[in-house]
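Page 47, continued from p. 46.
Same chain as before, 235 aa.
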Amino acid sequence: MPGMDDSMPGMDMDHDMPGMKMGQGSDEKDQQTEHGAMDAMSHMHHHQMGPHMYMTKLRTPATPADWAKADEIVKELREAIEHDRYKDYQVALSDGFRIFMPNLPQAEYHFTNYYNGFLESFSFDPSRPTSLLYKKNKAGYDLIGAMYTMPKRVTEDQLNERIPLSIAQWHLHTKLCAPPKDQRGTADRTKFGLQGSIITKEACTEAGGTFYPVIFGWMVHVYPFEDSREKIWGQ
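Result:
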């Protein structure tokens, strides 16, 4: 069963509270479902659209005030993670960040601080991201960005208050059909999971799976070391 290092960055499948490990207080079924969902998510680009991904639409136009707010967030984030020397991933680990599924090859790895994620449910501090994003290299990891989270229950207007939706696109992972317990190791991934073809509760029930309309909470990635505003916000 997955342990702390296998938990999803800052998310809780059955509850709205970011930053709480899904495995805490959950049964074996939930933990195995978590692992299957995370396995699928690790192979998806966070901007990949599809039936299992909901992304907020960019609101137009982006006003000078929107960009000023976004620029200030990036400035505070960049200064914080450089100041804390998180370019050295060992420092991140010593400060309480944990690697999500470190043994599974991924385009980018989430180093998550679960307490930060908990705090993000109530308040926003740009210098306190839920997760740090790294790319793996031969010697370890290169810091490339960060991720903020909010509970799945919040509205898009609330997301907009935190980071303007004319700048950032938050995303949710949706319509997960987890395979039957006795098939979790051999399930047909063309049908089950976040890359599977099953997208309705009825079809999932017929296949013997467990359906989750929305899993985890809102997420947004920021890449403060990129050389343009658009690249920083993944536009």
